[in-house]
Amino acid sequence: QFRPKLFNCKGLSKRMGNIEDVCVSRHDDPSEARQRYDNYVLLWSEIIAMLKDEEKLAFESRQIYQQECSRRGVSRLSKASWQDIYGPFVKRVSCNDQRTKERISLMIEELYPGPGERSFSEDVFQHCLRLTLMLAEVDLRQRIAGLKKNHGGIPPQVRSEKETDRDFEWWTNLVGKDTLELQQEPLSLSMLSKHGGA
């Protein structure tokens, strides 16, 4: 029977530093800060929703595992496969932030050390996914707290003629997708089926 390995996110933060320290290292333009704040909060709420629906998360994770096994013609996937398949998802939940992506990679390496060829079961895949969401949630909370701290509360909403275009432009840069696609696609594991992993 699979027993999930425990991971100390606080210990990782001590070794790699607090995301909040990076977020408030410079004075942001108020409109850009508000855009970041709104999008961080939106992404955070989507991650929380995924974590709360454990049954759906487990089902979708198993489905992806089985589909990838069938597509690759294997009975079990590897550690490298997890990194390939979930690369786009990690990019999304980390806001494509290199530091957060490194935290996720280090977390998986510490829990499941070894070469990329190491076999990963369905349960391990699901465990790594859940821990990825948990770590991303912690980092997003720190980002949100950092913006609020830096601006004395929620950053003010600054209106401009190009506000809509700027919002979509920033959101596109955040997740690396087309704006039209972003408007139609909330955070979901289904994005992996649509975009085919890395």
Please trace the helix and strand order, writing H or E for each element: HHHHEHHHEHHHH
Biggest sheet strand line-up = 1-2
Largest sheet: 2 strands, antiparallel
State the total count of DSSP E strands. 2
N- to C-terminal distance: 30 Å
Output the number of helix runs: 11
* Overall 3D form: elongated
Structural class assignment: mainly alpha
Strand content: under 5%
Helix content: 55-70%
Contiguous low-pLDDT stretches (5 residues minimum) are 15-26, 160-184
Radius of gyration, rounded? 18 Å
The average pLDDT value, as a whole number, equals 76
Give a quick rundown of the structure.
With 198 residues, the chain is mainly α. The protein is built from eleven helices and two strands; from the N terminus they run ααααβαααβαααα.
Overview of the molecule:
It is a single chain. By secondary structure, the protein is mainly α. The chain is built from 11 helices and 2 strands. It has helices at residues 9-16, 19-23, 30-52, 54-72, 79-85, 87-93, 98-111, 122-150, 163-175, 179-184, 190-195; strands at residues 77-78, 119-120. It has a two-stranded antiparallel sheet. Helix 7 runs antiparallel to helix 8. The protein is elongated. It starts with 8 loop residues before the first helix and ends with a helix. Mean pLDDT is 76; it is low at 15-26 and 160-184.
Features:
11 helices, two-stranded antiparallel sheet, 198 residues, mainly alpha
Q: What is the topology?
A:
Layout: H1 9-16, H2 19-23, H3 30-52, H4 54-72, E1 77-78, H5 79-85, H6 87-93, H7 98-111, E2 119-120, H8 122-150, H9 163-175, H10 179-184, H11 190-195
Antiparallel strand pairs: 1-2
Helix pairs in contact: 3-8, 4-8, 7-8
